[in-house]
């Protein structure tokens, strides 16, 4: 028994507002329900009969149990109708009318009132503002959209926020020959939301794949949990509207770079869903995945076999754009192919057969059997004299096969149907086949990543002695933090605190520049418990945090005045940088609160003078810091998303990064491997891999730092945002040159 | 009469190698030709009859005129067969066999020999290595791919390099209900190439749209000319294979950034073709454009009307990603919509009707009639009780309408067919409809750009007095160039030549830093005629070129020795930069041949010492240059593409630009408006528009400089490459900080 059984598995249905007028939704609902084998009761204030069924003036007057009531009445009549349902002991109700929460304050108030009534009466609510749902196997078509009775039952579950998209997908599934398990549109989702339906499907053995069409996301964490449960058993393919929306609402850089689409995309992918960009791709991917998922694999290898080289080129092109590996075949399969094929054909992968001949099946078997190959894409025109795709492909190889073909439409339809019976998905364009194959590869990569994460979690949970595979920077052992001490509030009687000593981090981390900075003084204050460090953070305390996360920071000294700065200059390796340190100070270089390359006391005096002239930061302190070696710069951040909660962000650093919007996002916490993979998603990834003689990033160290930050932000509700920018890639490792922490 | 009439409009056809064995291509060719009304002659060495037709031992033995011979014989038999054709006076031959130029040197030699025979005999050759072509209206199916007889005649011409892609598209057109005018695969294109076919179609009144599927491009200029002729009359939609290929062959930065796909894409777009990324998009765009092109418009505005908001959101999303404008409606249409629609619906554009009602047609008419709107995309599910798309859309508005719908497949097919009769293209997914609409907008933008360019050309050709709209920097008036004078070859007896004076450019261009640099000396040598400046170019001469192109360069002095450098420092505005100047010197900063921020004679001495230590550049000169104000940096270049000839390249400057591969390309020469549009194609475009307080680029000045460079490179076959990098955007305008010219 699922929590939504009254809604999705009703024994008896009432249609409230069952109109005798055929143009009305209430009338159409009754027509849609005609095939339903259980009782269907029209409810109408006056009519004694609607569409051939006896009608009742209220649900209560039916006199028999009703599991599901479909409310096809206008907003003004909804409360009375729902109360009638409550009194009659109805288990679930669908509200089809629009004009509620989506239409303004008045509608929202009404929706809230309806929800109260439903909750008190333990009625599960679908909608408002939805056309409904359908379950073809149960012959249950609880929707006012006509023409759905012919949609065949099958393994595909369609879950859409929009009723319109739900029906679009259900009809498209019909056209593609995919049977439907459930197709549901949630509308405003006052009560029943996407995760509720996904949880119901997770326990449903008849569901073979789920396609998910989202608009907004209310509770990202619940959504992720529900998808994770599902993907352990069946593939989930997701489409999220709003690609063009790069939400510019957040105040900080990090916030501005993480529009809701990007975050939702990251969340869906982390949860294990294959994310696509159109309704057609949703169904193409589902069709391929319903034929069989690949075993978990980080980068599955695809084989391409073609009867015509030209479409094969388009296919290979599309796979390459999608980032799918098409590995060269090894010596053994190539030797076999050389026996099977004309020497003028290309045989390394893609494998072109020239005009297909009798060896086609054997070629497919050879490529499919190669150890480099996890799945095949085959393209051939229908040429009955030269090729019989059904005979030549069915059972030819153990790996999944996606087929692309062209030919007279009736023949293509016939071959598609027959190959589906053999577990092979057929597409009428090479690019669609390629994208469907890419979905197989993406699904396998998600499963691989999940397995890797679960193994890391298990290792982390194991006793320390056994945890040889634990992350490089266990946060439990991280150094305590130094909170900001603004001069105005607490003039430092204690001597200036060198960051290196204050953080307690190993000396190597704070002295990446060659000669380690000597620890100068004792910490100015007892290290505070991390959770107590609410309130303003300045650069010094923020850097202490990032050092605790396992990132190096330049050796430096926070100084109260000019004299301390001179002392620091004398003890650090010149040239140094001089910065203002103040909790309200962001964008230092734009404010002129940063001077670089100071080598002499005279240059230091000039720099102190310049910084002292910044009017509104008179109570700031001075940070004297060694200069870091050159290298490309990253941005590492963490921020709270309204729907998904804490997230981490990796981007190319500097002003260009923002203009390019070149960032990767993960929901926090994230495992080291998944975090390390973020770098590869950047458009500028090449820049950080040793580009033109510049230092290359240590990808594992970066992943460990991101993972540590993600665990930290996930446990710190008092922190709104962390931004390490720039995080410089040097020959000596990553160095955080500036850092910012914003309290909630 | 077109040049390809013997091939494409034959009166009589021979099939050489007409095999009695049904699996053979030669047999299938005869079957395909069964519906052809003219004589079809099997040629076979022994058979007296093949597939029911009397056979002959040779073409010469037929005894009747033959226009077209289809050669279905293996490579070894081709020469004899073609000579037989030549003797018989055949006008055209198709060679179906593969294994020629694409298979290596031996095949290439045979192909060359075949071409010789064909040229001597004035035979036009199709192929080798193609399945052939079809002309449904003429019932001419000159292809060995079966099943093509049912492909309907109509307005769509399909021109593909690959025979396989040609048939893929022809069958897909059949499935989509698009009639075909011609569908041809060119194979190796030994003789008849894409431009030949396009030229034939340009004169064909029956052709309504052309889809073009390219792999490589042999003669880009001829291709562009052919497409330009066609697009003046009918739309051309192009797909180019090789998106994933970013050719890394060229030696220079600019070359490395312009893989062949990018250049071909630029050439196709400049020629007026709509460029798409899949075979499905090719046909979707063609179907929309066959219903009617928009009037030329730089940024046409689209209206969206929906019956269900959810699919409308996907539609709007896809249009936004494609960069299509969906303008807010004005007061008048909005007032009318307020009368027609429920107040809870969104009415500004997109216009959502809620569940469609009787006002749907009037809503479509209102949005279509709004002055902001050039075309409409309408989405609605098929709900017979609520909406009749045929009645509600046919003739409802004067602007083109693209329709997207969902419903029972047979009903969708019926509505699609009936709406096609009303000039409305229907798609079964909102995203496909959106992309098809984007193709309408792209076609209109291409036409607009062409009109703008033609107007600029006309203005430029007009007498100077009348040419008020002439480009800002007429190259005819540009300053002469200063060639490199390597010290070893010709020690400068003449005094150092300040670039400002040497170029003869207006003082304002060379002194963008505030105070103009005083012209110091007379030019060191007589200005040379530009065409004589072959041979090595150094930075000084390259900068003289860019100044002549209308770009500012920093005030600077080329110096032979330390003493001259000190004199220059005294006379320029400090701080200055010191650079080595040498024709063999590229990538100065990586070589350490560049020192910045030199303010004192002592700093200058240190810098000269450092540069003098660079071993292999002992004969270099020194350039002392004023420092430019800060700002974002561009890269401007020109290079020669093997297929398209001279091209210009604009990219984001610096090392990050290369890692990001963020460049825009145009075939040279290019008009100012088209050149100015390149900036908007950069992923980092935002960075150059006044991002976060940085200077914004003067887009017209940039376009003028690109256009000037493009005209110059187009007339300078002795120059292989020009690279201005960085080209800095400052508050005082564009300044070229470094420049490189490479001779061919």
From TrEMBL, chains A, B:
Residues 543-743 form the ATP-grasp domain. InterPro entries: ATP-grasp, ATP_grasp_subdomain_1, CoA-bd, NAD(P)-bd_dom_sf, Succ_CoA_lig_flav_dom, Succinyl-CoA_synth-like. Keywords: ATP-binding, Nucleotide-binding. Coiled coil: none annotated. The keyword ATP-binding applies. Pfam families: ATP-grasp_5, CoA_binding_2, Succ_CoA_lig. This is CoA-binding domain protein. It comes from Conexibacter woesei (strain DSM 14684 / CCUG 47730 / CIP 108061 / JCM 11494 / NBRC 100937 / ID131577). GO terms for molecular function: ATP binding; metal ion binding. It comes from the Bacteria.
């Amino acid at each position: 028994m699922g929590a939504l059984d009254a809604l999705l598995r009703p024994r008896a249905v009432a249609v409230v507002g069952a109109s005798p007028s055929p143009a009305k939704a209430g009338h159409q609902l009754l027509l849609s329900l005609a095939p339903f084998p259980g009782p269907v009761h029209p409810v109408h204030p006056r009519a004694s009969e609607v569409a051939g069924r006896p009608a009742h003036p209220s649900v209560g007057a039916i006199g028999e149990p009703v599991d599901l009531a479909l409310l096809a009445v206008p907003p003004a009549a909804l409360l009375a109708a729902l109360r009638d349902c409550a009194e009659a002991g109805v288990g679930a109700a669908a509200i089809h009318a629009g004009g509620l929460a989506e239409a303004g304050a008045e509608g929202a108030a009404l929706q809230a009132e309806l929800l109260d009534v439903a909750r008190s009466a333990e009625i599960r609510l679908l909608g408002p503002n939805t056309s409904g749902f359908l379950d073809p196997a149960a012959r249950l078509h609880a929707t006012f959209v006509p023409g759905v009775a012919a949609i065949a039952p099958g393994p595909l579950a369609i879950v859409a926020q929009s009723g319109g998209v739900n029906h679009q997908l259900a009809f498209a599934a019909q056209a593609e020959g995919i049977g439907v398990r459930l197709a549901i549109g949630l509308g405003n989702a006052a009560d029943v939301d996407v995760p509720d339906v996904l949880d119901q499907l997770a326990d449903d053995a008849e569901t073979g794949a789920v396609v998910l069409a989202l608009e907004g996301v209310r509770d990202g964490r619940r959504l992720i949990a529900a998808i994770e449960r599902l993907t352990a058993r069946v593939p989930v393919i997701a489409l999220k509207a709003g690609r063009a929306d790069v939400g510019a609402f957040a105040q900080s850089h990090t916030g501005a770079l993480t529009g809701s689409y990007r975050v939702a995309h990251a969340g869906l992918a982390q949860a294990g869903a294959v994310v696509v960009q159109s309704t057609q791709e949703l169904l193409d991917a589902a069709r391929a995945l319903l034929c069989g998922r690949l075993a978990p694999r980080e980068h599955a290898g695809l084989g391409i076999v073609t009867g015509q080289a030209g479409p094969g080129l388009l296919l290979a092109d599309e796979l390459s754009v999608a980032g799918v590996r098409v590995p060269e075949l090894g010596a053994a399969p190539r030797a076999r192919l050389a026996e099977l094929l004309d020497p003028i054909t290309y045989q390394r992968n893609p494998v072109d057969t020239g005009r297909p001949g009798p060896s086609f099946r054997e070629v497919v078997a050879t490529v499919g059997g190669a150890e480099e190959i996890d799945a095949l894409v085959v393209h051939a025109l229908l040429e009955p004299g030269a090729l019989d795709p059904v005979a030549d492909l069915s059972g030819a190889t153990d790996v999944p096969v996606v087929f692309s073909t062209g030919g007279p439409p009736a023949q293509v339809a016939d071959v598609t149907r027959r190959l589906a019976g053999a577990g092979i998905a057929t597409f009428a364009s090479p690019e669609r086949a390629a994208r469907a194959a890419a979905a197989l590869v993406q699904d396998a990569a998600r499963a691989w990543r999940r397995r890797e994460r679960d193994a890391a979690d298990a290792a982390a949970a194991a006793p320390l002695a056994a945890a040889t595979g634990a992350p490089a920077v266990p946060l439990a052992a991280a150094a305590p933090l130094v909170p900001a001490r603004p001069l105005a509030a607490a003039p430092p009687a204690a001597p200036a605190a060198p960051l290196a000593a204050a953080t307690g981090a190993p000396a190597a981390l704070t002295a990446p520049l060659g000669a380690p900075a000597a620890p100068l003084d004792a910490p100015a204050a007892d290290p505070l418990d991390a959770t107590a460090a609410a309130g303003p953070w300045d650069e010094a305390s923020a850097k202490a945090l990032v050092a605790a996360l396992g990132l190096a920071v330049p050796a430096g000294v926070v100084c109260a005045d000019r004299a301390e700065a001179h002392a620091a200059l004398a003890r650090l390796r010149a040239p140094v940088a001089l910065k203002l340190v103040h909790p309200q100070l962001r964008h230092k270089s734009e404010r002129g609160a940063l001077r670089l390359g100071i080598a002499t006391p005279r240059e230091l005096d000039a720099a102190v003078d310049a910084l002292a002239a910044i009017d509104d930061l008179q109570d700031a302190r001075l940070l004297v810091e060694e200069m870091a070696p050159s290298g490309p710069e990253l941005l590492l951040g963490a921020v709270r998303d309204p729907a998904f909660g804490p997230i981490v962000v990796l981007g190319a650093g500097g002003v260009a990064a923002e203009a390019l919007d070149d960032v990767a996002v993960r929901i926090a916490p994230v495992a080291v491997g998944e975090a390390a993979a973020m770098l590869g998603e950047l458009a500028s990834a090449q820049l950080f891999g040793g580009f033109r003689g510049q230092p290359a990033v240590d990808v594992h160290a970066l992943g460990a730092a991101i993972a540590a930050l993600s665990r930290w932000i996930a446990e710190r509700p008092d922190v709104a945002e962390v931004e390490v920018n720039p995080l410089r890639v040097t020959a000596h490792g990553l160095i955080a040159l500036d850092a910012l922490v914003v309290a909630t």
